Amino acid sequence: MRGKPQGGSLKRDINKYLEKGYIVGPKYAETLALTKVFIFGLGRYKYPTMKFTEGMACRTCLMTDPPLTAKELHYIPDWNFVNISPKNWERKLVYYVSHDEEREGIARNGYDTVIKYHTNDIRAKQLLTFLEEHR
């Protein structure tokens, strides 16, 4: 089903939307993990969305423009995601869909990035370090 479910994500009844055919909850992660390429754009503000960590954690090759904080988040264009623009996305999509080894390597690097820098344990340690440094 096209489109996103209505309402705020924390207020949604996942089962109701699953019955309607939406790809939400566990079905979203399953679908994303079966996808060769996850393509999206960040829009005008260029902030990193959950789509980065969700896609990388599912070992899916991301194709998007980089967020403004790409360096701080360890998002490296053409190493753990494919950097695209409105002018080149179609050419790059065709290329990476037909070059499995390269696409899978980028997806693997993305997964490794999430495991190394973006798990709950890592974030909790970073928070504790920050709090200790700013007593």
Domain count, please report it.
1
The helix-and-strand class reads mainly alpha
State which percent range the strand residues make up. Answer: 5-15%
Number of DSSP strand runs: 3
Average pLDDT, rounded to a whole number, is 93
Task: Identify the strand order in the major beta sheet.
Answer: 1-2-3
| SSE order, one letter for each helix or strand | HHEHEEHHH
Indicate the percent of residues in helices: 40-55%
Query: For the report, how would you describe the main beta sheet?
Result: 3 strands, parallel
Distance between the termini: 50 Å
Quaternary organisation? single chain
| Overall form | globular
Give the low-pLDDT segments. none
Number of helices: 6
Rg from C-alpha positions? 17 Å
Your description of this structure?
With 135 residues, the chain is mainly α. It has one domain (35-133). 47% of the residues lie in helices and 7% in strands. The chain has helices at residues 14-19, 26-33, 50-57, 89-98, 100-117, 120-133; strands at residues 37-39, 61-64, 82-83. Strands 1-2-3 form a 3-stranded parallel beta sheet, with helices on both faces. The protein is globular.
